[in-house]
Amino acid sequence: MVIRSTRNSRQRAWQTCLLAGTFLAAAGGAQAAEPLVKACSKTGEFVIGFSQANNAEPYRQHVNDELTAAAKAVSQFTLQIADGAGSVNTQTSQVDNFITQKVDLLLISPFEASPLTPAVKRAMEAGIPVIELDRKTVGDPGKDYTAFIGGDNYKIAFEAGKYTATKLLPDGGEVAVLEGLPSSTPAVERLNGFKDGVKENDKIKVVAEQAADWLPDKAQTAFAAMLQANPDIKMVYASNDMMAAGARLAAKGAGKEGQIKIIGTDGLPGPAGGIRAVAEGEWAATFTYPTGAKEAIDMAKSVLLDCATSVEPTVTVATTAITPENAKQMMGN
């Protein structure tokens, strides 16, 4: 009995030590949580570097404009925008320059995913938080980079496919897809999303798909060839508004303007944007791809001014379907 009692006492003591160690480890972990930026401060002044994929694209300029406006509202922020000019080498150099300058936070819309992954890694290793906008590098947000902010490309394209299946071509027909730059994540996600969305109508057949790299001239050439090979195409989904504009020119050149339904993606404002094209009946629809500019600057405030120890790794910004029912109203916004 004495032996059993001693053994039980030792066992309880050992369990107590284990529990105590667990609590101490947890407490130590809680104390170890540090701000994402050591020099954060409510009263500090901070430089935010932004490497933009390509200023020549209207959507990219739209992002720049909204980011500039959002940053101007925060007196402590200075925003530096660098034009990647559609070159991974240029963007890599820009990121390295921002690291050398010791910017306080890096924003990036990578032109291509894999080639820019090492540059993002270098920024993170240098202690610079990295927020990726619209496009991702390889890896996981919250681990390989601080956060991703953007729309859900797959879901946006899926909704475009569903709209085609149920509203535009309920009786079925042949459709085509103009894909963006295949090495960028939005291009792949939008292609797959649309193709999955139209599956809701088994009378719809995707007869042609081709990458046009987001460019209107390439889209015009590609869609013209598609129409020659598949003269019964009734609808084309373009992965951005610029390619939708190119597709319209191809349809016009083939004498089929107004006969082929066009859906774009981005929902850009302004005279050359998709909202106007839908409002004036040139396209059937476009789906907005939000810039995430406000959300990015809000996150920068959390990191740099509020000394956040963590942020939401993925922030998904909602899209809006621009159709003939709401396009004119949207133009007024």
Explain how this protein is built:
Helix 9 links the parallel strand 9 and strand 10. This protein is α/β, with parallel strands linked by helices and 333 residues long. Helix 2 (58-72) packs across helix 10, helix 3 (88-101) packs parallel to helix 4 (113-125) and helix 5 (153-168) packs parallel to helix 6. It has helices at residues 2-32, 58-72, 88-101, 113-125, 153-168, 185-197, 216-229, 241-253, 274-279, 293-304, 327-331, and strands at residues 46-52, 77-83, 105-108, 130-133, 147-150, 173-179, 204-211, 233-238, 261-266, 285-288, 314-316, 321-322. The protein has 2 domains: 46-150 and 291-316, Response regulator (Rossmann fold); 153-289, Rossmann fold.
CATH superfamily of the largest domain: Response regulator
- Amino-to-carboxy terminus distance: 84 Å
Question: Which architecture of the largest domain would the CATH scheme give at its second level?
Answer: 3-Layer(aba) Sandwich
The major beta sheet can be summarized as: 6 strands, parallel
